[in-house]
Specification:
The chain is of the alpha+beta class and about 210 residues long. It is built from three helices and 13 strands. The site of fe (ii) ion has 4 residues, from loops.
Length: about 210
C-alpha cells in the first residue's frame, strides 16, 4: 500500500490576476501622482506615500471596490465565516531599480494585500518566508544535496506579477522584496481587519478608527 503524507495546516496566499483592468490601473496611477513620498529607512530606492490613506479616500475607493469581494472570500478561507472587512490603511510603494524591501510583517492586522500598478520584474516579485524560532537555536539540513519541497522550503516567491494583479496573505507572514533588477515598480499595499472574531462566545471587536 502506498503511504500517504498529509500536508497539514497550510497557509493561504491568494493571487488574483487582472483584478484591475488597464483603464483602472492607468486611472489610479494618475490619481496617485499627486501624493507625496518619502524614502524607506532601509532602501533609498524604495519610497512610500507619506500619509496612510483610509478607505474613504475617493482615489483608493476606486481601487478597492473590485477587491472587496476577494477580501471577503479570503477572510472566509482564513476564518471559516463571511465577516465584515475594513481596509484599515493603504499606501503606495514606488520601488526603483536596485531598491528592495526588508523582510517584515504587519502587526495588529489580519489580512494584508498588494495591488500592482505596474508589471513586476521577476527579481522584485514578493517573497514569503517561513517563520523561524525567535528565541532558540534553529536546526536545518539545507544544503546542495537536500531536496526542496513544501516541507523543507523556507521561502516562496510569487512566480509572476503583472499590472492589475492582487495578492492577499495573512498579516503574520514575513514578506519582503529582493533587489529590483527591473524598471520602476509601483504597488498599492493595504491592511484589513474584520469587525469582530468570535470563538464560541469569546468575541473580540476591532475598531478601524
Ligand atoms: Fe509589507
Amino acid at each position: 500500500m502506498t503511504p500517504t503524507t498529509h500536508a497539514l495546516f497550510p497557509t493561504p496566499v491568494m493571487v488574483v490576476h487582472k483584478i484591475l483592468d488597464k483603464l483602472q490601473v492607468a486611472q489610479i496611477n494618475t490619481d496617485i501622482s499627486r501624493m507625496d513620498f518619502s524614502s524607506n529607512a532601509k532602501s533609498s530606492a524604495l519610497a512610500h506615500s507619506n500619509s496612510a490613506i483610509g478607505p474613504l479616500d475617493p482615489v483608493l475607493q476606486k481601487a478597492f471596490s473590485p477587491i472587496k469581494g476577494k477580501l471577503v472570500a479570503f477572510g472566509q478561507e482564513l476564518f471559516g465565516e463571511e465577516l465584515n472587512w475594513t481596509i484599515k490603511e493603504a499606501w503606495v510603494n514606488i520601488l526603483e531599480t536596485g531598491g528592495h524591501q526588508a523582510m517584515h510583517l504587519h502587526a495588529n492586522s489580519f489580512i494584508s494585500g498588494v495591488v500592482y500598478l505596474t508589471d513586476s520584474h521577476p527579481s522584485a516579485n514578493l517573497i514569503f518566508q517561513k517563520p523561524e524560532s525567535h528565541t532558540g537555536f534553529v536546526f536545518s539540513n539545507f544544503n546542495a544535496r537536500s531536496e526542496l519541497n513544501p516541507f523543507t522550503a523556507a521561502r516562496w516567491q510569487v512566480p509572476e506579477i503583472k499590472a492589475g494583479d492582487l495578492i492577499l496573505f495573512p498579516s503574520f507572514m514575513m514578506h519582503g522584496v529582493a533587489s529590483n533588477e527591473g524598471e520602476q515598480r509601483i504597488s498599492l499595499a493595504f491592511n484589513a481587519i474584520p469587525d469582530k472574531l468570535d470563538s464560541w462566545g469569546y468575541s473580540i471587536r476591532f475598531n478601524p478608527d
